[in-house]
Write a structure and sequence with these properties.
The chain has helices spanning about 10-15, 30-45, 60-65, 95-105, and strands at about 1-5, 20-25, 50-55, 75-80, 85-90, 115. It is α/β, with parallel strands linked by helices. It has a 6-stranded mixed β-sheet.
């Protein structure tokens, strides 16, 4: 399942999530973002309840776009334990995204990991 995240449900669905979240920030005009949706759906099914996959439409959720400093689309970030780790700011294959998610799930981080 892929969750739609809004300014209103961000705290409940992401900040208070019992499992890590992978969020794709999209825009209505971004065809590359649309290309990532099937990848997200497939990985959501593959990871099951161990990771929550989320979409944020930045055209509608401007405060989340600002909070995460989204400057490129699609922008994909991992969020867990109050920290955000950018994963990609481009279209990627399911294999590359899965590999990166597994890396951070196993404790790997990036120098750009920051508090929410």
């Amino acid at each position: 399942m892929v969750y739609e995240i809004t300014d209103e449900n961000f705290e409940q669905e992401v900040v208070n999530s019992a499992v890590p979240c992978v969020i794709e920030f999209t825009a209505g005009w971004c065809t590359w973002c649309d290309e990532m949706v099937p990848t997200f759906e497939g990985l959501a099914e593959k990871f099951g309840d161990s990771v929550k996959f989320c979409l944020v439409n930045t055209d509608l959720q401007k405060s989340l776009r600002i909070k995460f400093a989204v400057a490129a689309f699609p922008y994909i970030v991992y969020v867990a334990d109050g920290m955000k780790t950018p994963l990609f700011d481009e279209v990627v294959t399911a294999e590359r995204l899965e590999e990166r998610i597994k890396f951070v799930l196993e404790g790997g981080s990036a120098p750009t990991t920051r508090p929410l």
